[in-house]
Design a protein that fits this description.
Elements lengths: L8 E4 L7 H11 L6 E6 L3 H12 L3 E7 L5 E6 L2
Parallel strand pairs: 1-2
Antiparallel strand pairs: 2-4, 3-4
Length: 80
């Protein structure tokens, strides 16, 4: 059975538009150690379409991406 993912920190970026949501994501990731997990909460639309791809380009790992009941998205990112 899979181990539950331990989230190190959560950044709620609802209502934050591009590109600031990516900037806040990068700042939050910079504060983490390699292997730690950041949960980012993103709005539907451009944020969920753009931020995960940018995170992947920086060699971080997307562990999970799921839509929340309010339409926002939770994305779990493991720092490279």
């Amino acid at each position: 059975m899979d181990q539950p993912i331990e989230i190190t920190t959560t950044k709620n970026l609802r209502g934050v538009s591009c590109p600031m949501n990516l900037v806040y994501t990068k700042v939050a990731l910079a504060a983490l150690k390699s292997g730690q997990v950041l949960e980012i909460i993103l709005d539907n639309g451009a944020p969920i379409n753009n931020v995960p791809g940018s995170v992947l380009k920086e060699n971080h790992e997307i562990l999970e991406k799921k839509q929340l009941p309010d339409g926002a998205w939770s994305v779990l990112v493991r720092k490279a």
